[in-house]
Write a structure and sequence with these properties.
The protein is α+β, with helices and mostly antiparallel strands. 41% of the residues lie in helices and 22% in strands. It has helices at residues 13-27, 33-44, 89-97, 106-113, 159-190, 214-231, 248-263, 275-284, 297-303, and strands at residues 52-59, 64-72, 75-77, 81-83, 101-103, 132-139, 142-150, 197-198, 203-210, 235-243, 267-271, 293-294. Strands 1, 2, 3, 4, 5, 6 and 7 form a 7-stranded antiparallel beta sheet that branches. This is STAS domain-containing protein.
Protein backbone atom coordinates (compact mmCIF):
# COMPACT_ATOMS: atom_id res chain seq x y z
CA UNK A 1 0.00 0.00 0.00
CA UNK A 2 1.41 3.38 -0.99
CA UNK A 3 2.17 6.04 1.58
CA UNK A 4 -0.47 8.42 0.30
CA UNK A 5 -3.46 6.04 0.42
CA UNK A 6 -5.12 8.52 2.73
CA UNK A 7 -7.72 8.73 5.43
CA UNK A 8 -10.26 7.17 3.13
CA UNK A 9 -7.76 4.33 2.59
CA UNK A 10 -6.30 3.91 6.10
CA UNK A 11 -2.94 5.67 5.91
CA UNK A 12 -0.06 3.74 7.60
CA UNK A 13 0.72 6.12 10.47
CA UNK A 14 4.34 5.12 11.22
CA UNK A 15 5.36 5.43 7.59
CA UNK A 16 3.64 8.80 7.31
CA UNK A 17 5.37 10.17 10.43
CA UNK A 18 8.77 9.22 9.00
CA UNK A 19 7.91 10.81 5.66
CA UNK A 20 6.75 14.04 7.32
CA UNK A 21 9.95 14.17 9.37
CA UNK A 22 12.04 13.79 6.22
CA UNK A 23 9.97 16.44 4.46
CA UNK A 24 10.45 19.01 7.24
CA UNK A 25 14.17 18.25 7.51
CA UNK A 26 14.70 18.59 3.77
CA UNK A 27 12.83 21.85 3.20
CA UNK A 28 14.47 23.69 6.09
CA UNK A 29 17.97 23.35 4.60
CA UNK A 30 19.15 26.76 3.35
CA UNK A 31 18.89 27.15 -0.42
CA UNK A 32 17.35 29.45 -3.00
CA UNK A 33 13.59 29.90 -3.28
CA UNK A 34 13.09 27.76 -6.40
CA UNK A 35 14.97 24.83 -4.83
CA UNK A 36 12.91 25.14 -1.65
CA UNK A 37 9.64 25.03 -3.61
CA UNK A 38 10.82 22.13 -5.76
CA UNK A 39 11.85 20.14 -2.68
CA UNK A 40 8.51 20.84 -0.98
CA UNK A 41 6.56 19.20 -3.79
CA UNK A 42 9.05 16.37 -4.21
CA UNK A 43 8.70 15.52 -0.54
CA UNK A 44 4.92 16.01 -0.49
CA UNK A 45 4.63 13.29 -3.13
CA UNK A 46 5.83 10.85 -0.46
CA UNK A 47 2.78 11.51 1.71
CA UNK A 48 0.04 12.89 -0.55
CA UNK A 49 -1.36 12.15 -3.98
CA UNK A 50 -1.71 15.08 -6.37
CA UNK A 51 -1.24 15.97 -10.03
CA UNK A 52 -0.51 19.67 -9.73
CA UNK A 53 0.04 22.42 -7.20
CA UNK A 54 1.35 25.88 -6.59
CA UNK A 55 2.82 28.16 -3.92
CA UNK A 56 1.74 31.76 -3.50
CA UNK A 57 3.96 34.21 -1.57
CA UNK A 58 2.28 37.25 -0.04
CA UNK A 59 4.06 40.61 -0.45
CA UNK A 60 2.93 42.75 2.53
CA UNK A 61 4.65 45.95 1.39
CA UNK A 62 2.56 46.08 -1.78
CA UNK A 63 -0.39 43.98 -0.54
CA UNK A 64 -0.28 41.67 -3.54
CA UNK A 65 0.26 37.97 -4.12
CA UNK A 66 3.09 36.39 -6.06
CA UNK A 67 2.91 32.92 -7.54
CA UNK A 68 6.50 31.79 -7.03
CA UNK A 69 6.21 28.16 -8.10
CA UNK A 70 3.76 25.87 -9.86
CA UNK A 71 3.99 22.30 -11.05
CA UNK A 72 1.75 20.17 -13.23
CA UNK A 73 3.06 16.65 -13.70
CA UNK A 74 6.63 17.06 -14.95
CA UNK A 75 6.15 20.69 -16.00
CA UNK A 76 7.24 23.34 -13.50
CA UNK A 77 7.23 27.12 -13.60
CA UNK A 78 9.62 29.09 -11.41
CA UNK A 79 9.22 32.56 -12.91
CA UNK A 80 7.34 34.67 -10.31
CA UNK A 81 3.94 36.00 -11.37
CA UNK A 82 2.43 38.91 -9.44
CA UNK A 83 -1.34 39.36 -9.18
CA UNK A 84 -4.05 40.95 -7.06
CA UNK A 85 -5.36 38.29 -4.65
CA UNK A 86 -8.69 40.15 -4.39
CA UNK A 87 -9.47 38.78 -7.84
CA UNK A 88 -9.83 35.35 -6.26
CA UNK A 89 -12.54 34.94 -3.63
CA UNK A 90 -11.01 31.63 -2.58
CA UNK A 91 -7.58 33.13 -1.84
CA UNK A 92 -9.16 36.20 -0.25
CA UNK A 93 -11.20 33.87 1.98
CA UNK A 94 -8.05 31.95 3.01
CA UNK A 95 -6.30 35.19 3.92
CA UNK A 96 -9.28 36.53 5.87
CA UNK A 97 -10.02 33.30 7.76
CA UNK A 98 -6.50 31.81 8.07
CA UNK A 99 -8.01 28.38 7.38
CA UNK A 100 -7.55 25.52 4.97
CA UNK A 101 -10.13 25.15 2.23
CA UNK A 102 -10.96 21.93 0.36
CA UNK A 103 -13.14 21.02 -2.61
CA UNK A 104 -14.09 17.49 -3.59
CA UNK A 105 -14.72 18.79 -7.12
CA UNK A 106 -13.51 22.32 -7.71
CA UNK A 107 -15.55 23.08 -10.80
CA UNK A 108 -18.78 21.67 -9.41
CA UNK A 109 -18.47 22.91 -5.83
CA UNK A 110 -16.90 26.34 -6.37
CA UNK A 111 -20.10 28.13 -7.36
CA UNK A 112 -21.94 26.56 -4.42
CA UNK A 113 -19.55 28.15 -1.90
CA UNK A 114 -18.69 31.40 -3.69
CA UNK A 115 -21.21 33.29 -5.79
CA UNK A 116 -18.57 34.76 -8.13
CA UNK A 117 -15.12 33.41 -8.73
CA UNK A 118 -12.74 34.36 -11.52
CA UNK A 119 -10.49 31.31 -11.53
CA UNK A 120 -7.09 31.63 -13.14
CA UNK A 121 -6.21 28.97 -15.67
CA UNK A 122 -3.81 26.43 -14.24
CA UNK A 123 -2.64 22.94 -15.09
CA UNK A 124 -3.34 21.03 -18.25
CA UNK A 125 -5.91 22.83 -20.37
CA UNK A 126 -7.45 19.59 -21.58
CA UNK A 127 -8.13 18.51 -18.01
CA UNK A 128 -9.91 20.12 -15.08
CA UNK A 129 -8.79 20.21 -11.49
CA UNK A 130 -11.24 18.35 -9.31
CA UNK A 131 -9.96 17.44 -5.83
CA UNK A 132 -8.42 20.72 -4.63
CA UNK A 133 -6.93 21.83 -1.32
CA UNK A 134 -5.16 25.01 -0.20
CA UNK A 135 -3.68 25.80 3.21
CA UNK A 136 -2.49 29.18 4.55
CA UNK A 137 1.21 29.49 5.34
CA UNK A 138 1.60 31.23 8.69
CA UNK A 139 4.42 32.19 11.02
CA UNK A 140 2.66 33.12 14.23
CA UNK A 141 0.00 35.61 13.16
CA UNK A 142 1.89 36.64 10.03
CA UNK A 143 0.45 35.45 6.74
CA UNK A 144 3.24 34.23 4.43
CA UNK A 145 1.33 32.69 1.54
CA UNK A 146 -0.68 29.72 0.27
CA UNK A 147 0.29 26.12 -0.47
CA UNK A 148 -2.00 24.28 -2.89
CA UNK A 149 -2.28 20.72 -4.16
CA UNK A 150 -4.86 19.45 -6.63
CA UNK A 151 -5.80 16.35 -8.56
CA UNK A 152 -7.66 15.54 -11.75
CA UNK A 153 -9.57 12.94 -9.72
CA UNK A 154 -12.57 13.94 -7.62
CA UNK A 155 -13.08 13.42 -3.87
CA UNK A 156 -9.46 12.43 -3.25
CA UNK A 157 -8.87 14.34 0.00
CA UNK A 158 -10.42 13.99 3.43
CA UNK A 159 -9.80 15.02 7.01
CA UNK A 160 -6.56 13.08 7.21
CA UNK A 161 -5.09 14.90 4.20
CA UNK A 162 -6.26 18.20 5.66
CA UNK A 163 -4.46 17.46 8.92
CA UNK A 164 -1.33 16.31 7.10
CA UNK A 165 -1.09 19.40 4.87
CA UNK A 166 -1.75 21.66 7.86
CA UNK A 167 1.02 19.89 9.79
CA UNK A 168 3.68 20.62 7.20
CA UNK A 169 2.41 24.15 6.42
CA UNK A 170 4.26 25.84 9.28
CA UNK A 171 7.58 24.33 8.19
CA UNK A 172 6.89 25.31 4.58
CA UNK A 173 6.17 28.89 5.72
CA UNK A 174 9.41 29.00 7.69
CA UNK A 175 11.40 27.56 4.77
CA UNK A 176 9.99 30.18 2.38
CA UNK A 177 10.67 32.97 4.84
CA UNK A 178 14.26 31.75 5.38
CA UNK A 179 14.85 31.51 1.64
CA UNK A 180 13.49 35.02 1.14
CA UNK A 181 15.71 36.45 3.88
CA UNK A 182 18.78 34.68 2.45
CA UNK A 183 17.96 35.93 -1.05
CA UNK A 184 17.66 39.52 0.17
CA UNK A 185 20.86 39.21 2.16
CA UNK A 186 22.72 37.72 -0.78
CA UNK A 187 21.51 40.54 -3.01
CA UNK A 188 22.78 43.12 -0.54
CA UNK A 189 26.11 41.32 -0.13
CA UNK A 190 26.57 40.82 -3.89
CA UNK A 191 26.20 44.55 -4.42
CA UNK A 192 29.01 45.28 -1.98
CA UNK A 193 32.67 45.39 -2.94
CA UNK A 194 34.54 42.34 -1.68
CA UNK A 195 36.65 43.63 1.22
CA UNK A 196 40.39 43.04 1.08
CA UNK A 197 42.43 44.05 4.09
CA UNK A 198 46.22 44.14 3.60
CA UNK A 199 47.63 43.39 7.04
CA UNK A 200 51.18 43.82 5.82
CA UNK A 201 53.10 43.55 2.58
CA UNK A 202 53.01 39.77 2.91
CA UNK A 203 49.56 39.08 4.43
CA UNK A 204 46.08 39.69 2.99
CA UNK A 205 42.88 39.17 5.03
CA UNK A 206 39.66 38.42 3.10
CA UNK A 207 36.39 38.35 5.13
CA UNK A 208 33.90 35.73 3.91
CA UNK A 209 30.36 37.02 4.36
CA UNK A 210 26.90 35.45 4.00
CA UNK A 211 26.52 32.39 1.77
CA UNK A 212 29.17 31.30 -0.73
CA UNK A 213 27.12 30.59 -3.83
CA UNK A 214 28.81 29.97 -7.17
CA UNK A 215 28.64 33.56 -8.40
CA UNK A 216 30.12 34.95 -5.17
CA UNK A 217 33.02 32.54 -4.90
CA UNK A 218 33.92 33.01 -8.55
CA UNK A 219 34.00 36.79 -8.03
CA UNK A 220 35.88 36.30 -4.76
CA UNK A 221 38.54 34.13 -6.39
CA UNK A 222 39.08 36.64 -9.19
CA UNK A 223 39.36 39.53 -6.72
CA UNK A 224 41.87 37.69 -4.51
CA UNK A 225 44.07 36.69 -7.45
CA UNK A 226 44.07 40.22 -8.85
CA UNK A 227 45.05 41.62 -5.44
CA UNK A 228 47.85 39.07 -5.01
CA UNK A 229 49.27 39.97 -8.42
CA UNK A 230 49.09 43.68 -7.61
CA UNK A 231 50.55 43.51 -4.09
CA UNK A 232 52.67 40.37 -4.20
CA UNK A 233 51.31 39.02 -0.89
CA UNK A 234 52.54 35.57 0.13
CA UNK A 235 49.74 34.66 2.57
CA UNK A 236 45.92 34.93 2.44
CA UNK A 237 43.82 34.60 5.59
CA UNK A 238 40.22 33.71 4.74
CA UNK A 239 38.10 34.93 7.66
CA UNK A 240 35.04 32.66 7.93
CA UNK A 241 33.48 34.34 10.98
CA UNK A 242 30.84 36.03 8.79
CA UNK A 243 29.62 32.89 7.01
CA UNK A 244 25.94 32.10 7.54
CA UNK A 245 26.29 28.45 6.57
CA UNK A 246 29.19 26.10 6.02
CA UNK A 247 27.88 23.22 3.94
CA UNK A 248 29.58 21.00 1.33
CA UNK A 249 29.03 23.68 -1.34
CA UNK A 250 30.84 26.26 0.80
CA UNK A 251 33.68 23.82 1.44
CA UNK A 252 33.99 23.16 -2.29
CA UNK A 253 34.07 26.91 -2.93
CA UNK A 254 36.83 27.49 -0.35
CA UNK A 255 38.80 24.50 -1.67
CA UNK A 256 38.68 26.02 -5.15
CA UNK A 257 39.84 29.39 -3.82
CA UNK A 258 42.71 27.72 -1.91
CA UNK A 259 43.87 25.83 -5.01
CA UNK A 260 43.76 29.00 -7.10
CA UNK A 261 45.86 30.85 -4.51
CA UNK A 262 48.42 28.02 -4.45
CA UNK A 263 48.69 28.03 -8.24
CA UNK A 264 50.17 31.53 -8.20
CA UNK A 265 52.63 30.66 -5.42
CA UNK A 266 50.86 32.02 -2.32
CA UNK A 267 49.56 30.17 0.77
CA UNK A 268 46.17 30.37 2.45
CA UNK A 269 44.52 29.65 5.78
CA UNK A 270 40.88 29.58 6.96
CA UNK A 271 40.35 31.35 10.28
CA UNK A 272 37.52 32.37 12.60
CA UNK A 273 34.92 29.63 12.07
CA UNK A 274 32.21 29.93 14.72
CA UNK A 275 31.81 26.94 17.09
CA UNK A 276 28.25 26.34 15.81
CA UNK A 277 29.54 25.93 12.24
CA UNK A 278 32.30 23.56 13.39
CA UNK A 279 29.77 21.47 15.36
CA UNK A 280 27.60 21.25 12.25
CA UNK A 281 30.57 19.98 10.24
CA UNK A 282 31.34 17.33 12.85
CA UNK A 283 27.71 16.14 12.98
CA UNK A 284 27.62 15.92 9.20
CA UNK A 285 30.92 14.02 9.12
CA UNK A 286 32.55 16.67 6.93
CA UNK A 287 36.29 17.21 7.12
CA UNK A 288 38.35 20.16 5.89
CA UNK A 289 40.92 18.22 3.91
CA UNK A 290 43.92 20.15 2.57
CA UNK A 291 42.68 23.40 4.12
CA UNK A 292 44.79 24.87 6.92
CA UNK A 293 42.69 26.33 9.72
CA UNK A 294 43.16 28.47 12.82
CA UNK A 295 40.77 29.49 15.58
CA UNK A 296 41.27 33.24 15.13
CA UNK A 297 43.55 35.90 13.66
CA UNK A 298 46.23 35.83 16.40
CA UNK A 299 46.55 32.04 16.09
CA UNK A 300 46.66 32.29 12.31
CA UNK A 301 49.44 34.87 12.42
CA UNK A 302 51.35 32.76 14.96
CA UNK A 303 51.12 29.73 12.66
CA UNK A 304 52.56 31.88 9.87
CA UNK A 305 55.38 32.96 12.16
CA UNK A 306 54.23 36.57 12.19
CA UNK A 307 54.27 38.21 15.61
Amino acid sequence: MSVYEGSRHHQPVAQTVVAIHELIRAILLPRDLADVCRTIFQQLHNVLQFDAGFIEHYQPKTDIMQTIYSIDGEIEKTEPYTWDYRRSKVVAWIIANRQLIRFDDLHEDLSKRFSIENTRSFGQTEKRSRAWMSVPLLIGDDFIGVLNIQSYQAALYGEFEEALLTTVASSVALALDNAQVLAELELEVSELDIPRIPLSDDVLIVPLIGVLDRLRWENLTQTILETLRERGCEHVLLDGSGLLTFDPDAIQAISTIVKAIELIGAKSMLIGLRPSLIEGLIRAGIHLKNIRTARDLPMGLAMLGIG
